[in-house]
Design a protein that fits this description.
10 strands, alpha+beta, two-stranded antiparallel ribbon, Cyclophilin
């Protein structure tokens, strides 16, 4: 009888422990808040910024930035365009603003040097989840603009690796560019970037003074995902504007 009673007591204890564990697991799942990824961007001779990324606002854009950053794509690149009190732009492998990333920058499946782009996650492109405003400290994706040719969608889906960080507020960009994060530490570093000496580019068709005399160098960018795998970004084939123009005007001359 004593043995049976002991076995019964042990069984009851085990059931109580099991119920407690199940309840705790359910409680954890109900109260767990996933921490947003945080990028650490070190600028040579200037300092370090920490940028919180928002996958709930622009999931594929964030996945693209994380993949490029953690594979070392941005290391050694520059901020090639700086417009004071507006934004600082970087992330172009060519350092000119016309470069595009290749699939080999985000995949290890033997991808070639074929370039890629991602769809723009913003309201004007039919993506309504992104409500981030282009205020000082916000990071957003740079893209091409072919609207003068009536090619809106082609421009909307042309972002690749280039990004810009706002050094002032500009509401006109809201809904037209994919903002995906914000500086949470190192605003003084951003202010220093904003004060970079610039000149007019010899290759530019306009008179905008936005080319840094000494382009600030991105020493490294790494993103802490806190154990979350955001995956490889979905890509699209970038629009070939030069070929389009050649075909357009070549056809007219025939």
């Amino acid at each position: 009888m004593k043995t049976k009673r002991i076995i019964m007591i042990i069984a009851i204890i085990l059931v109580i422990v099991l119920i407690g564990l199940v309840g705790y697991t359910i409680y954890q799942k109900a109260t767990f808040t996933k921490q947003n990824p945080v990028a650490t961007m070190e600028i040579e001779g200037i300092g370090t910024m920490k940028i919180e990324l928002y996958p709930d606002q622009a999931p594929n854009t964030v996945a693209n930035f994380i993949t490029l950053a953690n594979r070392g794509f941005y290391d050694g690149l520059t901020f090639h365009r700086i417009v004071k009190d507006f934004m600082v732009q970087g992330g172009d492998k060519d350092g000119t603003g016309s470069g595009a990333p290749t699939l080999s920058a985000i995949k290890d499946d033997g991808s070639t040097t074929e370039t890629y782009a991602i769809k723009g996650e913003f309201v004007q492109n039919g993506f309504n989840k992104n409500t981030l405003r282009h205020e000082k400290g916000v990071i957003s994706m740079a893209r091409s603009d072919y609207s003068q040719m009536g090619l809106y969608e082609e421009g909307y889906n042309s972002a690749g690796s280039q990004f810009f960080i706002m050094t002032g507020d500009n509401a006109s960009l809201n809904g037209y560019y994919a903002a995906f994060g914000k500086v949470i530490e190192g605003m003084d570093v951003l202010d220093k970037l904003n004060e970079t000496e610039v000149t007019t580019s010899e290759d530019s068709s306009d008179s905008e003074a936005s080319t840094p005399v000494n382009p600030p160098v991105i020493k490294s960018v790494r993103v802490d995902t806190f154990g979350v795998d955001y995956g490889v970004p979905e890509t699209v084939t970038p629009f070939d504007y030069n070929s389009y123009i050649q075909q357009l005007y070549g056809g007219m001359s025939n």
